[in-house]
Design a protein that fits this description.
Layout: H1 4-15, H2 25-38, E1 48-55, H3 70-80, H4 85-92, E2 96-103, E3 114-116, H5 134-149, E4 155-161, H6 165-177, H7 193-208, H8 216-223, H9 226-240, E5 244-247, H10 250-262, E6 270-272, H11 281-288, H12 304-322, H13 326-329
Parallel strand pairs: 1-2, 1-4, 2-3, 4-5, 5-6
Helix pairs in contact: 1-2, 2-12, 5-9, 6-8, 6-10, 9-10, 10-11
This protein binds alpha-ribazole-5'-phosphate and nicotinic acid (NIO).
GO molecular function: nicotinate-nucleotide-dimethylbenzimidazole phosphoribosyltransferase activity
Keywords: Cobalamin biosynthesis, Glycosyltransferase, Transferase
Pfam families: DBI_PRT
Length: 335
């Protein structure tokens, strides 16, 4: 529980800024959240890092995506060359990028921005059996925890790349929430009607292997991808080291759901960036009671939504730290 006196001082600091009370709307709530995480009435938000977690999925070969599995590795090369949507947004917004190889099949180019935390070259086909062993899951969680805890940036955006990972995220979230997987299946990279029907049928087969409801740890072992498990660990590690975690779209929200179940305290550090157009995202956000900052009709992942929310996070902190009060600026309060 946040300290009562601190919360009272914080609300007073926000309310005595030179503006009508409440006039900065949700930016005020955002500022309060950041101040609470940093335990400071002068929060600092100057550095942000994007980590893109990449891994392959055994399920991809079953035909759950509109794109072939090779695209995971090809897109990692594209990120390392600076050509992805996430790279462009990050450059525009002055955010550092690192790519984490959590288990991508094939050779990746040597590059200082590539962090290798691979356990295996992707998961087993989760339609037929567990995606990974308990030991692999725990290793991926520990890898992520170390990555999330490293660095001195104030905010962390976490993105992902892994062909087939909307399937993995749908299954993980459905099992944790006790929902039928059908409720969380969407078009991912752009399946047509026939492709979507096939994906639903395959994921229903996958879901039938296990009980309707699973713990986060069990759901990750059965259906996770190494990028989703590593991201879950990173969200916990980042929260534990006082960073704000800017949660991206559908896949990152599935990781956030796992993180909340594994380490409930980390939730206070999470800011939900955007509502993805991927069909299941709104359902998971609803279950989390989350109301994201942006709704841009995006459905890409990579951390693109999280990056676009970074300027809002930064501006909210600056508002609290830099804005004058009625007293300090000599402005009259309400009549
Ligand atoms: C060129 C390309 C770039 C991407 N960047 C992110 N994703 C996104 O799409 C994938 C998930 O969708 P599905 O489950 O349908 O495979 C993930 O890799 C995700 O990050 C991409 C997908 C493609 C094709
Ligand atoms: O919202 C996302 O994260 C998403 C949606 C579709 C494909 N890849 C990612």
């Amino acid at each position: 529980m946040p300290n009562e006196d601190f919360q009272t001082s914080l609300q007073r600091a926000i309310d005595t800024k030179t503006k009508p009370v409440g006039s900065l709307g949700r930016m005020e709530k955002l500022a309060a959240r950041i101040a609470t995480v940093q335990n400071s009435l002068q929060p600092v938000m100057s550095r942000c890092q994007l980590s893109i977690f990449a891994a392959d999925h055994g399920m991809a070969v079953a035909g759950v995506s509109a794109f072939p599995q090779d695209v995971t590795r090809q897109m990692v090369a594209n990120f390392l060359a600076g050509g992805g949507a996430a790279n462009v947004f990050a450059r525009t917004l002055d955010v550092d990028v690192q790519v984490v190889d959590c288990g991508v099949a094939g050779e990746l180019m040597a590059n200082p921005a590539l962090v290798s935390r691979r356990i295996d070259a992707g998961t087993a086909n989760a339609i037929a059996g567990p995606a990974m062993t308990a030991a692999e899951r725990d290793q991926a969680l520990a890898n992520g925890h170390a990555i999330g805890g490293a660095g001195d940036h104030h905010a962390a955006c976490f993105g992902e790349m892994g062909i087939g990972n909307t399937s993995s995220a749908s299954l993980v979230a459905a099992k944790i929430l006790g929902l039928p997987v059908e409720a969380l299946v969407g078009r991912g990279t752009g399946l047509d009607g026939e492709g979507l029907r096939k994906k639903k049928a395959l994921l229903e087969d996958a879901a039938e292997r296990t009980p309707d409801k699973l713990s986060a740890a069990a759901a990750l072992m059965e259906y996770g991808g190494f990028e989703i498990v590593t991201m879950t660990g990173a969200m916990i590690g980042a929260a534990e080291t006082g960073k704000i975690v800017i949660v991206d779209g559908f896949i990152a929200t599935a990781a956030a759901l796992c993180a909340r179940h594994i380490a409930p305290d980390c939730e206070r550090s999470f800011i939900y960036a955007h509502r993805s157009a991927e069909a299941g995202h709104s359902r998971v956000l609803y279950a989390l009671g989350a109301d994201p900052l942006l709704d841009l009709d995006m459905r890409l992942g990579e951390g693109t939504g999280a990056l676009l929310a970074w300027p809002l996070v930064k501006a909210a902190a600056a508002m609290l730290r830099e804005m004058a009060s009625f007293d300090s600026a000599g402005v009259s309060g309400p009549a």
